[in-house]
Amino acid sequence: MRSSSAFAALHAVALQAATASAFTSTSIMRRGAPATASTTAVATTTSSSLRLTKGDTVSFAKYEGLGNDFILIDDRDKSSPSLTPDQSERLCDRNFGIGGDGVIFALKPDAIAADDAAAEVDGGYDFTMRIYNSDGSEPEMCGNGIRCFAAFLRDLGADASSYKINTLAGPIIPVMNDDGTITVDMGPPILDGPSVPTTLEPNADDNSVVEQTLECNGKTWKVSAVSMGNPHAIIFVDDLDADIDFEVDGPALESHPAFPAKTNVEFVQVLSPTHLKMKVWERGAGPTLACGTGTCALVVAAIRAGRIPRPANEGDSVLVDLPGGPLSIEWREENNKVYMSGPGTFSFKGEAVLK
Predict the structure, then answer these.
(1) Is 92 labeled as catalytic in the residue annotation?
(2) Which one of 92, 142, 148, 296 is the catalytic residue?
(3) What is the C-alpha separation between 229 and 231, in angstroms, rounded?
(4) Buried b / exposed e along 138-158 (16+ C-beta atoms within 10 A)
């Protein structure tokens, strides 16, 4: 169950303290408790190695973006995560760990080397973000995760109006709004089919894949492929409840050979020209309450497929209802960039002992 993440995580941490199972924890602070530079999660270890090992203590903070929940680790003095993918997977276990859709690490600005000069940003990066999914895999980026990451940095005391973040998907810039929401410059969408990547035959401008036919799970689908630094397969349906078998179709499409790096899968229903509704099956995480990059990708796909018009004015956005709540998305014509606005919310913090 992912709809009660904070409760499940709190229960899991308390359970481990009582049973000395996979993890133990202390000093749990609930939502509303102040997160400061001196008290917010800081990765610590009693060993001299760069990675944490059995018996070491990791401090963490838990954040969620529309129910897409993450464990945040402060590794700002490191160039690589202090946890392994396997350790992260166990921390994400909702019965024997803290519980979460992924573990996010705040690292040194240069922790990811730029592939080329175009990937650099003016003035350099402020921080690097890396993430391990709940299955231990590593995605290029996470839209809800980066809003939580920005909120985490703010609560650590690195207060700023915006942050230049180094990610495996390239530079991402979240902006802190006065109303408490966070707007993220997600950059331009990647439309070239082989670059998404997908082996589906390109059938539209820019060598892109727009509502191309795909046979999967005994059904015929019309799939649009878009990357926001990570791959997305977008499928439009008339009724989200009646037209898909979500728990079966989602994983089948995720691992279809047409997507050599696997893919996130978004099923989308058009409610109005400025209002969409979606369900997401996330690559490496399964069903989640929200997916920021997927929400960006599906708005681009809806416009390119002619499902909705492109908003005429700068600042006009499309509202997308996700299971965990709404996100506002703008695909700006003047610079081809996608902007996502939504919350990143502190839930609680604590410590866990790795077993």
Answers:
(1) no
(2) 142
(3) 7
(4) ebbbbbbbbbbbbbbbbbbeb
Calpha distance 349→60 (Å, rounded): 6
User: CA 36, CA 343: separation in Å to the nearest integer?
Assistant: 19
Distance CA 256, CA 297 (A): 19
pLDDT for 24 equals 38
Kind and range of the H or E element at 73? strand 68-74
Higher pLDDT, 313 or 118: 313
Contact criterion met (CB below 8 Å) for 336 and 46? no
Reduced to 3 states (helix: H, G, I; strand: E, B; else coil), residue 295 is helix
pLDDT digits (tens, 9 = 90+) for 122-177: 789 999 999 999 999 999 999 999 999 999 999 999 989 999 999 999 999 999 99
CA distance 260 to 256: 8
Average pLDDT, the chain: 87
> Using CB atoms within 10 A of its CB, is residue 312 exposed (0-12), middle (13-18) or buried (19+)?
exposed
Nearest to 261 by CA among 220, 286, 229, 223: 229
Catalytic residue among 92, 148, 291, 296: 291
pLDDT for res 50: 62
Token code pair at residue 209: 């894949």
pTM attached to this predicted model: 0.81
Q: Answer for the pair 153, 101: CB distance below 8 angstroms, yes or no.
A: no
Sign of CA dihedral 258, 84, 15, 70: negative
- Whether 296 sits among the annotated catalytic residues: the reply is no
Q: What is the pLDDT of residue 49?
A: 45
* Residue indicated by tokens 């408490």: 180
